[in-house]
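User: Can you predict the 3D structure of 2-amino-4-hydroxy-6-hydroxymethyldihydropteridine diphosphokinase? Sequence below.
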Amino acid sequence: MARVYVSIGSNIDREANVASCLVALRGAFGAIDCSPVYECPAVGFSGDDFYNLVVGFDTELAVREVATRLREIEFAHGRRRDLPKFSARTLDLDLLLYDALVQHGDGIDVPRDEITRYAFVLRPLADLAGERRHPELGLSFAELWARFAVPDAGLRRVEPSAPT
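Assistant: Sure. Here are the predicted structure tokens for 2-amino-4-hydroxy-6-hydroxymethyldihydropteridine diphosphokinase:
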């Protein structure tokens, strides 16, 4: 059984898309643990603020099958891949960690480099799995967050009306 962590982001109808995504993730993978939800400005383009959070779950599926199911959930929520990388989106699901697997290439990128680059990924991951260690760096996610260069980075914890 692998422990998986996934980053969720949305800035189009974000409350509804995040809530629907959590239902879809539970349907695909079973029980999930959720970090708090953070609101933060769009990065790399001008646009509405995002809701971001991280979920964790256990699965017996192979890493490629998890990635495929995440893409299916994105597409079911109207995600378009024909737009620029930095643009508004209904739903963005990124596979951050698959146990301690380190794989870069062949369509799989774990651990994601966004973990250490963006506060909106690292902060909720540290909230949810602070004691776990980054498989390449050996530091816990709580330690990585404590060392993060821009601690708040415009993040604001929110309580969406939809349950997580």
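The chain has a mean pLDDT of 90. The longest helix spans residues 14-29.
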